[in-house]
Automatic annotation (TrEMBL):
Reactions mediated catalytically: guanine + H2O + H(+) = xanthine + NH4(+)
Domain of life: Bacteria
One Pfam family linked to the record: HUTI_composite_bact
PANTHER family the record matches: GUANINE DEAMINASE
Protein name (record): Guanine deaminase
NCBIfam families per the UniProt record, alphabetical: guan_deamin, PRK09228.1
Xref: InterPro entries: Amidohydro-rel, Guanine_deaminase, Metal-dep_hydrolase_composite, Metal_Hydrolase, Metallo-dep_hydrolases, MQNX/HUTI_composite_N
Lineage, broadest ranks: Bacteria, Thermotogati, Deinococcota, Deinococci, Deinococcales
Function: Catalyzes the hydrolytic deamination of guanine, producing xanthine and ammonia.
Organism: Deinococcus carri
Gene3D superfamilies: Metal-dependent hydrolases, Urease, subunit C, domain 1
Length: 439
């Protein structure tokens, strides 16, 4: 039994609906046994009730629930930084050639290790991972993920048109390979499976039906894809599906819009699409760095919230700009500021919620992770800036915990992630030589 002593912050409820959603213990205690939180509260109180627990002293930093990235591409870690293009050109020139390289198992394994290492070192404990087009690269991914201890919800990406021939499959093969992967990996350790057509632009109706067949046969797997990211993409989908009411309808007609569906981007939604997403309780993964880098547009968060659509955050590596949910939260804030009266003013509690609890809800893992409630898994990130860094200075002069949280989102980077736990297991610890900077 371990008692973690730290400044604790979490958002068990949504600040979009609950005032005072941010819960803080400045000198808090979290009692953890067998990976689960048994008690929490002021340190002195938890200590008095559990005098024999081993104390892990984390004073001097901030302990947050582990970050939850609800849209990130495993095969794209090496193509980060492909700036200067919009979506369709970026896919063609920057991304799809790299994705084809994952047909080589050794290449796929190296990329999987780089990707998983980047998640952990950025404090991400759960991720909805857009996989590879190759089934063998997914076997490799799941086996590498199992060794890291991270929670991954991932699936083979399927497409049968308009990409490049070596990335195409058929509905029959997509079904057979998906079924085999689900049977091998879904619910094994901390892994779950997500059925993942790349986007309707590269998926025939037959392929979407094959995805639906998997969802029917295995009702608790998740579903993910892209939606309404870029105006040229939206127009192309309209031409490819002339009888569909809109982009969402291409998925809806196949029965793919459910409580366990997470659709990335949705920068250009119609009102009907928002109403249907809300009715089916499907989530939108907002990826503000990607939307900025690819010039996709300013996410209409206010319209999503007004329609009742649940929103979480994704880094969208490699369309995005890295693995940090701190940066993603800050960029979400910037974009809402830039929207002026059309934007939603985001405070630090919103940024924490979007990068933790909201992701757990999107993945239907809210009973397991996303906050520090009693009974939840101990999934946590310990942020402690190296001495002498700007963040260290600013935190030392912050006039309260809410301002500290704002400072973490404004200035925090991978270098500030000191330790990470999943289900009570330590999955990352920063090298101690990096603790001291500039002193
Ligand atoms: O941001 C994106 N990244 C991708 O890889 C992709 N594929 C289809 N649509 C996409 N959007
Ligand atoms: Zn994406």
């Amino acid at each position: 039994m371990k008692l973690y002593r730290a400044t604790l912050m979490h958002t068990p409820e949504s600040p979009f609906t609950a005032p005072d959603a941010l819960q803080v213990q400045e000198d808090g205690g979290l009692l953890v046994e067998e990976g689960r939180i048994l008690a929490s509260g002021p340190y002195a109180q938890v200590r008095a009730n559990h005098p024999r627990a081993e104390v892990v002293d984390l004073r001097g930093g901030v302990l947050l629930p582990g970050f939850i990235d609800t849209h990130v591409h495993y095969p794209q870690v090496r193509v980060l930084g492909g700036l200067g293009m919009q979506l369709l050109e970026w896919l063609d020139k920057n991304t799809l050639p790299e994705e084809a390289r994952l047909s080589d198992d050794a290449y796929a394994r190296a990329v999987a290790r780089e990707f998983l290492s980047a998640l952990r070192s950025n404090g991400t404990t759960t991720a909805l991972v857009f996989g590879s087009h190759y089934a063998s690269a997914m076997d490799i991914f799941f086996s590498e993920a199992a060794q890291t201890g991270l929670r991954v919800v991932a699936g083979q990406v399927v497409s049968d048109r308009l990409l490049r021939p070596e990335l195409h499959t058929t509905p029959e093969r997509a079904y057979a390979e998906g079924k085999a992967l689900i049977e091998r990996w879904h619910g094994v350790g901390r892994a779950l499976y997500a059925v993942t057509p790349r986007f309707s632009l590269s998926a025939s109706e037959g392929l979407l039906d094959a995805c639906a067949a998997l969802m029917t046969e295995f009702p608790d797997v998740r579903f993910t894809s892209h939606l309404n990211e870029n105006p040229r993409e939206v127009e192309a989908v309209r031409e490819l599906f002339p009888t569909a009411r809109d982009y969402l309808d291409t998925y809806e007609r196949a029965g793919l819009v459910t409580r366990r569906s997470v659709l990335a981007h949705n920068v250009h939604p119609a009102d009907r699409e928002l109403a249907v997403m809300a009715a089916h309780r499907c989530s939108a993964a907002h990826c503000p760095c990607s939307n900025s880098a690819l010039g996709s547009g300013l996410f209409p968060l206010k319209r999503h919230l007004q329609a009742g659509v649940h929103v979480s955050l994704g880094t969208d590596v490699g369309g995005g700009t890295g693995f940090s949910l701190l940066k993603e939260g800050l960029q979400a804030y910037f974009m809402q500021q830039l929207l002026g009266a059309q934007g939603v003013p985001l405070g630090p509690a919103h940024l924490l919620y979007l990068s933790t609890r909201a992701g757990a809800e999107a993945l239907d893992l809210g009973d397991l992770t996303g906050d520090f409630g009693v009974g939840k898994a101990f999934d946590a990130v310990y942020l402690r800036p190296p001495q002498g860094t700007t963040l260290d200075t600013v935190l030392n002069h912050a006039d309260g915990p809410e301002r500290m949280l704002a400072d973490l989102f404004t200035l925090g980077t991978q270098q500030d992630v000191a330790q990470v736990w999943v289900g009570g297991d330590a999955v990352y610890r920063r090298a101690s030589s990096e603790q001291e900077v500039g002193v």
